[in-house]
Design goal:
A hairpin with a 5-residue loop joins strand 4 and strand 5 (about 80-85). By secondary structure, the chain is of the alpha/beta class. Helix 3 runs parallel beside helix 4 and helix 6 packs parallel to helix 8 (about 255-260). The model has no long low-confidence stretch (mean pLDDT about 90). The chain starts with 11 loop residues before the first helix and ends with a strand. The chain is built from eleven helices and 19 strands. The strands form six sheets. A six-stranded mixed β-sheet has the order 4-5-6-7-11-8, covered by helices on one side. Strands 16-15-17-18-19 form a five-stranded mixed β-sheet.
């Protein structure tokens, strides 16, 4: 059995001890994860997927009532998201799956659509954050919507228009309570005010809990110099850079994974989590809110290299490879 999201081939021993065999089809579809002790954990849907579902439901409901909308998630797998639509209004409640601490779980996303002459226009309203200053890829005042999330929303909207027979439409997406929930996220530290962010590289939320962590660490211990990465973009490009090695998604559990690897591994991925793990104080004195902002400046190497050198002194058998969102290698520790 293979996870279609990560490409991980589940060991037969894990499948045999599965405690709930009736949900193994969800594992095969990528909507759930199987852990080493046989526990099955549901993946949830990201804020980007939730917004896309509400948007599509709103548009489809211009022609009929809607209960559930089919989407192709950014990772390529199909899913039916429990959104409802009535009279041009779509609603979808954020399902975090078995993630125990998703701050946005339970938030209702609302999209209001109307048919108009012309093209499609999607707008973001109450409860969706906006950037307080210019940052790489986003201007001041722009909504905090990632490129992948925006693409997913626009694709769903076009499908909704086609299904409703519209030639043009305007959709407003808002999240009541988003401003309050954002106070429990990192948005304020990132300079994003007024609400939550619409994000999601795969469209799915990983159910990080102790069962899953134990399974990940078991994989790390069983591998010879594994490639450890922190997210889906890292997973994709790490496999291209190191095709002959086991690539394991460890999220924010970098230190635990390095210990499980016996201090011999390749740490590979986007710079944000990795550099903050290497040096939690790396942004001090730089005037930057994020690592991404730091790397957009001239002279960033001079700011980063002392931290990399110190980490190499502490963990000499760990290679570090940092790349940007397009897969271009930025640097690291050879």
């Amino acid at each position: 059995m293979r996870d279609p999201v990560t490409g991980f081939e589940y060991p037969e021993a894990w499948v045999k001890v599965c405690k709930t065999p009736s949900v193994l089809p969800d594992v095969e579809r990528g909507l759930a994860l199987l852990t080493a002790d046989g526990t099955v954990l549901r993946r949830g849907f990201t804020t980007g997927t939730t917004a896309a579902a509400a948007c599509k439901a709103a548009l489809l409901s211009l022609s009929r009532d809607i209960n559930g909308v089919p989407l192709i998630l950014p990772c390529g797998i199909p899913a039916t998201v429990p959104a409802v639509g009535r009279g041009g209004e779509g609603r979808c409640v954020k399902d975090a799956g078995d993630h125990p601490s998703d701050a946005t779980a339970g938030l209702e996303f609302i999209a209001v659509a109307e048919a108009v002459e012309g093209d499609l226009a999607v707008e973001f309203g109450e409860g969706i954050g906006r950037y307080g200053s210019d940052v790489p890829g986003h201007e001041k005042g722009a909504p905090s919507v990632s490129e992948t999330a925006l693409s997913s929303i626009l694709k769903a909207a076009m499908e909704g228009m086609d299904g409703a027979g519209c030639h043009g439409a305007r959709v407003l997406i808002h999240v009541p309570g988003g401003r309050e929930v954002a106070a429990r996220t990192l948005n304020q530290k990132l300079g994003i005010g007024g609400g939550i962010s619409l994000l999601g590289t795969t469209g799915l939320v990983e159910p990080w809990d102790e069962h899953l962590v134990a399974s990940v660490l078991e994989r790390v211990r069983a591998s010879n110099c594994p490639v450890l990465t922190t997210g889906r973009i890292g997973l994709r490009f790490s496999r291209l850079l190191f095709p002959g090695r086991e690539v394991i998604l460890v999220g924010g559990r970098i230190q635990e994974a390095l210990e499980a690897a016996g201090g011999r591994a390749i740490l590979c991925g986007l710079p944000g989590l990795i550099l903050r793990e290497i040096n939690p104080r790396i942004l001090e004195g730089t005037g930057c809110r994020t690592v991404e902002e730091l790397l957009a400046r001239d002279g960033w190497r001079e700011a980063v290299e002392p931290s990399l050198a110190d980490f190499h002194g502490r963990m000499p058998r760990v290679k570090v490879v940092l790349f940007d969102r397009g897969g271009r290698v930025l640097g690291g520790i050879p």
